[in-house]
Amino acid sequence: MSSAIKVSTLAQTALRSSVSSAAGFAVKRAGYRYYSAVKPKTLKETFAAKIPENIEKIKKLRKEHGAKVIGEVTLDQVYGGARGVKSLVWEGSVLDSEEGIRFRGKTIPECQAILPRAPGGEEPLPEGLFWLLLTGEVPTEEQVRALSAEWAARSDVPKFVEELIDRCPNTLHPMAQFSLAVTALEHESSFAKAYAKGINKKEYWNYTFEDSMDLIAKLPTIAAKIYRNIYKDGKVAEIQKDKDYGFNLANQLGFGGNKDFVDLMRLYLTIHSDHEGGNVSAHTTHLVGSALSSPMLSLAAGLNGLAGPLHGLANQEVLNWLTEMKKAVGDDLSDASIKDYLWSTLNAGRVVPGYGHAVLRKTDPRYTSQREFALKKLPEDPLFKLVSQVYKIAPGVLTEHGKTKNPYPNVDAHSGVLLQYYGLTEANYYTVLFGVSRALGVLPQLIIDRAVGAPIERPKSFSTEKYAEIVGATL
């Protein structure tokens, strides 16, 4: 029996037990839909059924249209970080400059409306988005609760990984600890073990799927252990097998008693998961995975990119900037006061953190979803009022300044304010939460890459002298 089949069998055994528990828990709540008598398809079965169709779709597209030019590359793009170059395949999401992100063609408000929720919850479960990103289908409530149970069943973190985190000094950045722990999970990789023994290429996706499911399941406990070690007492609650992913993360962090924070975690994990394939964390995970590195090593590489101040670390920088502003303006949130502070930031040669985006040319829908959450849950919070005033004034100032292509806020401009309100005040830690969420977006594409036989990524590079020759320039 192959190791992948062993893993799957063990997971299914645990899943049957967990689903029974989950069903018994859920029926006590008003409005819960009972499980049907017919066993629904699992996530793995749903995805496996789509592989032949997707492979044929790609073959047909390449055969009939492979020679067609879909864009051009300018020298400015080459030296500008490949900005806007059409060269990646990313099935889960597409980012439009005017309307924002769509997950499998669906906007964030549409996902909030159609994806299953927890009993009594107001926000969509991230399990549902993971299912949507991987398969292109909206799952049923029953399928999502079964996925919650399966992740809970796979959640045990190896003892040596826990000890590794415990040995890290508190001065080591939380993201460095997070990446270290994910890398260490390579020891458990089904893909790496199967590849070492020799497997058929058609089975790559199967082991990648198993690794991705195991990895996602363990991330809340790893993330919570890092948080509790650095900032609290080092004690982490056990995963509750009858609860959903967002609840367990919130509870292990120490905030499970606050229903609104639990719902915030569900929203946070959903909207931060995926943002097209060209951003650093997504592209890095895809690139490293294209070399047939395991999901553990691939995600760890992506996390290292996410840790950069020009990417995931930005939400931490936004909060620090807002805190500085609050000290400077005090209770004066007038238009004039905010405008003066914005200009003082720009005139000092600094950027306004949380504003601008490489692709977007409007307010980030992820920002809007968080703003709507705040308007419902914390409309009188002083920091939220400050954020609202910045939102009102900053686009005009940045437009007048003339050096920002997109003068509107992105997702980083808001998330820290919500976390602060509920007591998660340690800004250094915020990118770890972003990392847990981003795993839900990049790992589905990694599974898809292996299922359709995507090749190793290897673009062509030239020296500056060669580019000068190509464009007919004299240096």
Major sheet characteristics: 2 strands, antiparallel
The portion of residues forming beta strands comes to: under 5%
Q: Element order, helices and strands?
A: HHHEEHHHHHHHHHHHHHHHHHH
Strands ordered across the widest β-sheet: 1-2
Mean pLDDT: 90
Q: Helicity, in percent?
A: 55-70%
CATH superfamily of the largest domain: Citrate Synthase, domain 1
Structural class: mainly alpha
Radius of gyration: 23 Å
Q: End-to-end span in angstroms?
A: 63 Å
Task: Examine the secondary-structure arrangement and name the CATH architecture of the largest domain.
Answer: Orthogonal Bundle
Which fold name fills CATH's third level, the topology of the largest domain?
Answer: Citrate Synthase, domain 1
Shape: globular
CATH class of the largest domain: Mainly Alpha
As residue ranges, the low-confidence spans are: 1-35
| Quantity of strands, as a count | 2
Q: How many independent structural domains?
A: 2
**How many helices in DSSP terms?**
21
